[in-house]
Amino acid sequence: GQAAERAQGAQRVAIEAQAQQLRQKQFDATYGSLLGPNGEQLTPEAQKAMAAADPVAVAVANYQVPPPNTGSRSPMALATLRKVMALNPDYNAQNWQAQSAMMKGYTSGSQSKEISGINTALGHIGVLGQAIDALNNNDIQGLNRLANFLQVQTGGTAVTTYQAIVHKVAPELNRAYVGGVGAQGEIQAQESDFDPKLGPQQLKNNVAITARLLRSKIGALENQWKTTMGPNSDFQGRFIMPEAQVINRYSPAPAAGGRNPGDAAGFKVTDPRGVVHTFPTQQAADAFKKAAGIQ
């Protein structure tokens, strides 16, 4: 009686263990290898979707936890790593600590504050470009809308409203340049670049130059990111807000060879801060020098 029951129980355990081994082998050969149920090759999109259903693989791919130990050749560890690579092709298990530190820096550390400042400044550059157009057209209603967007008090004329907008934008530009609030003199220097006396064309030129300077800061951050995270990692899509894409309007992406359009041409003036301003004509350069008090 009892001996027979024990024998049957042991047999059931053995059968279940064999079934579990068979299921594990089937998993390792298909889903564990990111293949379909019949062993067929899945598309990269399907592999990524399959991998995204594994919370451990997602956590590893996002540098939240260490990678699995594949030294033991554990099928489960190897399957997890395959999923990680499907989610993040640039993942480097040997370099994960450096990648984790960079992810933290760019999402909550010092670099994240720098990126946030650049995003804000570029968004405001777009508003400033619209304000210059409205000022040129004496569009007081358009200027008022922009002032309301920036939550600044509107003035009685187009010029005073435009100046209120510049007064709001200048500190953000300076913060993006220097990484902090900056001195009052630095902020006033930023405002002088957008003095309405310079005229609409010069003002738009200065907007483009400002956008180009901010693009160079983005380029430095992106280079640091890709050096550690991998050449295919998407810096722009992850960190540059849609509002900041105005940079492509005023400062197109560098052409082949890394030069911006028009870099080789133009008349350059260096202001007291050491910032180089490029103008399409000598007359425009001289007008800027006069307005800025540059000898």
Please describe what this structure looks like.
The chain is mainly α and 295 residues long. 63% of the residues lie in helices and 3% in strands. It contains 13 helices and two strands, in the order H-H-H-H-H-H-H-H-H-H-H-H-E-E-H. It has helices at 2-29, 44-52, 55-61, 75-87, 96-107, 110-136, 140-149, 158-178, 184-192, 200-229, 235-239, 247-250, 282-292; strands spanning 267-270, 276-279. It has a two-stranded antiparallel ribbon with strand order 1-2. Helix 6 packs antiparallel against helix 10 (200-229) and helix 8 packs across helix 9 (184-192). The longest helix is centred in the C-terminal third of the chain and has 30 residues, at 200-229. It starts with a helix and ends with a helix.
Poorly predicted runs are 26-31, 255-265
**What is the 3D form?**
elongated
* Structural class computed from helices and strand pairing: mainly alpha
Helix proportion range:
55-70%
Measured on Cα atoms, how large is the radius of gyration? 29 Å
The topology string of helices and strands comes to HHHHHHHHHHHHEEH
Largest sheet: 2 strands, antiparallel
Question: What topology emerges from the helices and strands here?
Answer:
Elements: H1 2-29, H2 44-52, H3 55-61, H4 75-87, H5 96-107, H6 110-136, H7 140-149, H8 158-178, H9 184-192, H10 200-229, H11 235-239, H12 247-250, E1 267-270, E2 276-279, H13 282-292
Antiparallel strand pairs: 1-2
